[in-house]
Amino acid sequence: MPVGIEAWVTQIPPVTRAWLALSVLTSLAVQCQLVTPLQLYFSFKAAFTNAQPWRAFTTFFYFGGISLDFVFHMFFFMRYSRMLEESSFANRKADYSWMLFLSSLMLLLLSPLVNLPFLSSPLAFVPIYLWSRRHPSTPISLFGLVTITAPYLPLALVGLAWILNGTWRAAAGDLLGCAVGHVCWFMQDVWTREMVGGPTILSEAPEFLKRLLGDI
User: Fold this and answer.
1) How far apart are the first and last CA of the chain?
2) Is the pLDDT of residue 65 over 80?
């Protein structure tokens, strides 16, 4: 039977666990100087003109060096991604992966607006925002200092990130993640219910992905 850290890791749902593992391994690789951030960041010129397409992938897994800001983002991203995957996306690995994939595409297209080389933090805010909208009356205690309801959580975290980084650029990325999260919430919860009366390709994974991940 797994014990300690192994038991904790195995209890994390599969999509969140894979995301967390890739993020930690990427930061450790940079910390150990196996790669540099210059090899990981995303720009359209570097990724497509210079034929370095891996940048469209690695930009979502580098949260910076091991620091207080790294721990801050890891904690909140893992907590709310896990809660979302265990509730709204329970036994729906494909749908959760598909939602994150579509969110990543939106962030890549919008990234020139804020000139962000790394999109890990904006993507992490998507499940946080979606969870907060689906649990509007849930009280949240921030470090035991103040209690807010769930819909205010994303803005509170944006403010904390701004304070920790001391620059508006970190807040801009997180706000971009909130905007993409709002689009996902609208497509998942509003459009499918009130506009089309059922799931669409924008709210549910295609069948081939469900088969690939063992959901059907």
Assistant:
1) 28
2) no
What is the rounded distance in angstroms from the CA atom of residue 91 to the CA atom of residue 52?
A: 35
60 has a pLDDT exceeding 60: yes
- 3-state SS track over 107-153: HHHHHHHHCCCCCHHHHHHHHHHHHHHHCCCCEEEECCCEEEEHHHH
Please say if the pLDDT value at position 119 is more than 50: yes
Residue 199 banded pLDDT, cuts 50, 70, 90: confident
Amino acid found at 86:
E
CA neighbor of 44 nearest in space, from 34, 59, 26: 59
Q: Does residue 197 have a pLDDT over 70?
A: no
Q: φ, ψ for residue 96 (rounded to 5)?
A: -70, -45
